[in-house]
Amino acid sequence: AGAGEVEVTWPEPLTAAERVARAARFWATMVPILAAYKLLELRGGDEAQWDALHARSAASIRGALEALQGFYIKSGQLVATRVDLFPPAFAKELATMTDGVAPMPAKLARAVVERELLGGRRIEEVFSEFDEAPVGSASVAQVHRAVLRESGQQVAVKVQRPAVEPKMLADVSNLTALFGQPALREAFPVDYYVVFSELGKQLEREFDFETEAQSQERIRSALLAGPSGSPVAVPAVCEGLVAPRCFAMEFANGVPLSRAAEEMPSASEAERQLFGRRLLGALTQAFGRMILLEGFFHGDPHPGNIFVDPKTGEVTLLDFGQTKELSEETRLGLARLVVLVAEQPEDLEQVDTVAIRTLIESIGVQFVEGADDTAGAAAAMWLFDSRPELPGGYSPSELDAKSPALAVASFPREMVFVGRSSVLIRGITAALGVNWSLAKEWAPIARQALVTDQERRAGIIPDASPSAAGPLNWLSTRLLAPLLA
Q: Which end of the chain, N or C, is less surrounded by CB atoms within 10 Å?
């Protein structure tokens, strides 16, 4: 089928009435569920009743989110990663949305490729093979396996859904307005108005695949510049096959993290634990290097964007539509904070709460009036550590009345995505049931970032933009490895 056989239109933004209708559909599902939870709480339900309610509610919410699509799918993806915060039934049910969104028709996908990527040429002129059934389908785009006719290389072609942009921007606008209400901003342990505001700004960039391809190549180059190569695989973008709504890249082997357990049915518990720890190590190193060394990192980490190869253990990071760049001040402030948290003693009474609060405030985190130093220290340790207890009797559970998140008055927008990376790793840690201190794992990387900065200030190495700093960081690491050990 040629591009002319299917008319591809890019719709106008949704009308106010359509936006209200989508929001009404969402709350028509949520209000009865919230009422059911309140009623069972008043009745004092037993464990079996709670489990049954969790299962029914999770299924209802998944049905509503899948019907609405758009940004509501991404909200479900966030819940699916938080096994430490939501009932297991929710994580299990909503995990199917991370890579299970219904694909667009094959003819429409071909039309988008021929019109947007190939400039009107037929698919057969460029690809010797093009699978009409996508290998993955997500809220913004779907991916098709193909083979380049000229080189025989197997590639993945990412194709944007034609009608998704105005729908998703309207969804995030609704959620931002909702959580901007004073009553709701006070009701949650995290200020979701700031979260959705920042997500909305980043979401606008996610629809530009040319920018995404550039971001993917920048992160790939930075990670490969490390002394032992990249801890995760990042597919190379195919030169000359990049367009605003479609682009091609190396094909990634493996399965989404959300399906990894299904691919290892005969694995022993010990083998699963080993696999999980290797996964944690790879992701921890990758995000530590992106955030603390490059200051430019993947901003949408969820199980559908992480592929694992059960045979080799290789981890591949996908979907760079949402990325975030930190200011130098924030990047180095984070590095100092990570080192300080990592150096704290096990005895909570000996934790330097004053120093930790001073550093976390220096990167823009503000606390409610009357919050003491232990609140600041607990918030930093909650973000970068997995201790079962925190200073001042604060709880690591976000839903607990003693959560340090309740002491946070405002969270800097550029830190929202650092928090998402932390959430991903903490979620995997909780699923494995292991202790994993992000601060201790990131501390060597943070020290490297600080030493490299000192070298630049002293003129030992020339100044460089973050995008060009990879090889310099590699050189610094090789020369100063004994000092950083």
A: C
Catalytic site positions:
300
Place of tokens 């919410």: 61
Question: What is the DSSP code string of 144-163?
Answer: EEEEETTT--EEEEEEE-TT
**DSSP assigned state of 103:** P
pLDDT in tens, 351-398: 999 999 999 999 999 998 999 999 999 999 988 887 888 999 998 877
Looking at residue 351, what DSSP letter applies? -
In sequence order, which ranges of 289-351 are alpha helices (DSSP H)?
328-342
- Contact call for residues 301 and 424 (beta carbons, < 8 A): yes
Count Cβ atoms below 10 Å from residue 136 Cβ, excluding itself: 24
How far CA 182 is from CA of 188, 193, 197, 399, in Å, comes to 11, 10, 15, 19
- Strand-pairing partners, residue 142, are 137, 159
**Residues 6 or more apart whose Cβ sits within 8 Å of residue 46:** none
Whole-model pTM: value is 0.75
Q: pLDDT tens digits, residue range 416-466?
A: 789 888 888 887 887 777 778 899 999 999 999 999 887 777 766 554 433
Give the C-alpha separation, 322 to 239, whole Å.
Answer: 21
Q: How far is CA 202 from CA 137, 195, 345, 365, 449, in A?
A: 21, 11, 38, 20, 26
- Phi, psi dihedral angles at 108 (to 5 degrees): -70, -40
Q: Are 176 and 197 in contact, with CB atoms under 8 Å apart?
A: yes
| Phi, psi angles (nearest 5°) of residue 364 | 105, 0
- C-alpha radius of gyration, the chain, whole number: 23
Cα angle: 444, vertex 445, 451; to 5 degrees: 90
Measured CA to CA, the distance from residue 387 to residue 384 in angstroms comes to 9
Shortest CA distance to 422 belongs to which of 439, 444, 408?
A: 439
Per-residue CA distances from 159 to 76, 116, 141, 315 (Å): 22, 9, 5, 23
